[in-house]
Amino acid sequence: EYQDPKAQAVFAAGREKQGGEVWIGGPGVSPGYFDPAVDGMKKGVPSNSMHAKTREDFFTEDGWSWFKTGDIGSWTDRGCLRIVDRKKNMFKTSIGEYVPVEEVEKTYQDTCAFADFVFVPKETKVAYIAVCVIVSDSVGVVMKWAKETGISGSEQTVVGSEAFQNLLYQEFEKAATAKKLQRFLMVAKKNIYAEYQAPGYQEDWVNGVVCKSGHKEQLLTATFKPRR
User: Fold this and answer.
1) Coil, strand, or helix at residue 27?
2) 133 with 152: CB under 8 angstroms?
3) pTM (predicted TM-score)
4) Residue 226 DSSP one-character state
5) In this predicted structure, what is the pLDDT of residue 195?
6) Across-strand partners of 103?
7) Is the separation of the CB atoms in 71 and 22 below 8 Å?
8) What pLDDT, on a 0 to 100 scale, did the predictor assign at position 6?
9) Cα dist from 222 to 71, 80, 115, 203, whole Å
10) Which residues of the chain form beta strands (DSSP E)?
11) CB–CB of 138/113 below 8 Å?
12) Residue 68 in contact with residue 57, Cβ under 8 Å?
């Protein structure tokens, strides 16, 4: 337990939040990065650009130096700090909560046999998340499920059906619960969009897809990671 009143106040305020960027502060925290042009003993030494980086990552308040780590964390029920992701991999919703994009995508994609690719669009003006699901190599499993449940039609029809949306919602709900995702990271059924893409679609998405507006958009990187 902290004895310093200032540390107690900071810790108590932090525990009221579900998650956010981890800042480290205290009398022993460095005031910034070393830049020979600013902090060095010799004049005329060129800068290594760390002075500018210091202004981004450090600040001083009430005699304490604070460092913005770039990590996103949350408090566990036991009061322990859990590092979720890096800030650069996340976005903030309209209610100020950070979405650990890669963790959410991995949770839903790796635990669902009916989805080959799950993508979380970056949307900062709403308080919820949505997911785009691509069915490709797993279409055989999907069509088998459709036959067993009495759903007919082409791959596109089955994947775009409300019944399949319900299936994905049930699978994602179980995965989120097992992974203990925070409530705002659990996707609602109405916010699940699924479509079928023939195997090999990744190459087309790397080269660029023409949108309805006529604009050509590259959806994947050369390593098949989503572009945001």
Assistant:
1) coil
2) no
3) 0.66
4) B
5) 95
6) none
7) yes
8) 63
9) 26, 38, 21, 8
10) 20-26, 58-61, 64-75, 81-86, 90-92, 98-100, 117-119, 131-135, 192-196, 209-210, 216-217
11) yes
12) yes
Going from the first residue of the chain to its last (228 residues), give the mean pLDDT of each consecutive group of 10, the final group possibly shorter: 63 62 91 89 85 92 91 79 78 83 90 94 85 96 96 96 97 94 92 95 90 84 82
DSSP 29: S
How much is the pLDDT for 48?
87
Taking residue 219's Cβ as centre, other Cβ atoms within 10 Å add up to 18
Would you state the structure tokens that stand for residue 219, as one six-digit string? 């959806």
Neighbours of 178 (CB within 10 A): 10
CB-CB neighbours of 10 under 10 Å? 17
Residue whose token pair is 């932090």: 14
The conformation of residue 160, written as its DSSP 8-state character, comes to: T
DSSP per residue, 94-147: TTS-EEEHHHHHHHHHHT-TT-SEEE-----SSSS--EEEEESTTHHHHHHHHH
Cα distance between residue 219 and residue 228, in whole Å: 8
The percent of the chain in helix, strand and coil, each rounded to the nearest 5, is 35, 25, 40
> Beta-carbon neighbour count of residue 131 at 10 Å?
21
What pLDDT shows up at residue 147? Answer: 95
Cα–Cα distance for residue pair 73/23, rounded to 1 Å: 10
Contacts of 10 (CB under 8 A, 6+ apart): 25
Name the token pair of 173: 């709900």
φ/ψ (deg, to 5) at 193:
-115, 125
Please state whether beta strands 131-135 and 192-196 pair in parallel, antiparallel, or not at all (unpaired).
Answer: parallel
User: How confident is the model at residue 10, as a pLDDT?
Assistant: 61
